[in-house]
Design a protein that fits this description.
Strand content: 15-25%
Distance between the termini: 44 Å
Helix content: 40-55%
Shape: globular
Structural class: alpha/beta
CATH topology of the largest domain: Rossmann fold
Number of helices: 18
Strand order of the largest sheet: 10-9-11-12-13
Number of strands: 18
Largest sheet: 5 strands, parallel
CATH superfamily of the largest domain: Succinyl-CoA synthetase domains
Number of domains: 3
CATH class of the largest domain: Alpha Beta
Length: 508
Amino acid sequence: MLLQRIHVEKGAYYDSVTLMLVARELQSMEGIEEASLNMATEANLKILAAAGFGVSDIQAGQSDLLIAVRGDGSVLEAAIEKARELLKNPPGRKSTPGEYRPKSLDGALSMLPEANMALISIAGRYAGDEADKCLDAGLHVMLYSDNVPIEKEISLKNKAKEKGLLVMGPDCGTAVIRGVGLGFANACPTGPVGLVAAAGTGLQEVHVQLARRGVGVLHAIGTGGRDVKEEVGGITFSMGLEALLCDEEIQVVVLIGKPPAPSVEERILRILEGGKKPAAVGFIGGKASGDKPPLYLCRELEETAAVAAALANGKDPSSAREELFKSYERLKEKAAPMKRKGFIRGLYSGGTLCYEAQLIATGLIGSVYSNAPLASEMKLADSLKSRGHTMVDYGEDEFTQGRLHPMMDSTFRAERLLSESQDPDVGVILFDCVLGYGCHPNPAGQMAEAVEKARKKAGGRIAYVAYVCGVDADPQGATEQRKILEEAGVTVCDSNAEAARLACYIVG
């Protein structure tokens, strides 16, 4: 009989990478079936409960650490003690003897006095103050951290604007500066395109789709998703766009993100029109329409890349768009022998990829429920309980407080795939695997293992459809990742938009 235990470490904050490494060590112990280390946020307590752990009597706050283990009762106490010991000296984090690692901004600047940018990745409650210090030191800031209050974001960006500096973020997961990727970034070629993106995986998808069309990117400036909201006013987006328009090396400009607030969108388009450079505007699902050469307005990510690639290669953007949408129509033939009855359940690590998939599905099969929906009335009451057609972004803040982002570890998403596969009303499970620096070394392997387990129970009742966002030069290798999924019985598509359409055609 399997037993379980949850131990609470009061006031013990640890970063999510450390918690993942320790959890893996515990899971390798003989007699331990499952181990989880997470901060005691409301979402993490719900996740533990869904996994069968008894949390009703747990007295803990979000600054407390939960060590949960399940297995042979004789080893549970030893597992808890091993976890506490490992937290003092995390596996895989040993320093090289004699190596100096600065523990302050001043220490880092003493080693790199020529640095002009700081990348901040710490708990959101501390990140804003550190960004303030960096601006005072004359540094541009890439604020990778999420859960930073919007009031702090506004303050930081106004301060940066006064100093002529950029604040990329908060929650800026991806940027490219002179062809060098920061955060989650793909190993794509350098070229004449410059991007500004209020969307991390949206940036990655366009970056990858451009590379597949033989076009490189010089700069890609991430802004964080909230930048284009009315409250922030598109401060970083506007500054980034103006910088690209002034850069003689940039021949084509690309804008990416969910639709900005109307006043922000108007300001951005006015700046773009004044710049006189060819541009592809990819505000996904935006209301603005109608090309005004050299400006081309797009509604989807691959469409944006196809148009931008045509502009860079001196080809007709309208013809490139038309050819792309003709290829989507041919997916109906591919879907015909794969027909299934039931709902689509989308399990996404990329927020913009999830948003785009919802947009496409809504136009083909009707409204989709989500924790980050297109319309507020389609918001799930509980992100762990799907209904109808559902697509969940597991990179939302509710899932990443005290837990690794799913692009770094898909363990929880794989568990959700198994759970959704048990629902008799499900016909298709749709998911992404995002590759690149900073991402999990084998995301396809994590998801393929879950698919194989699920297929043993569900048989052929469910079709599995995926998209691998990456290139062969990425550390994981896109071709190899596709092969892993295909060998597990997953149909792998060439873009996020293609995968979403195929899933809809299968159930439609």
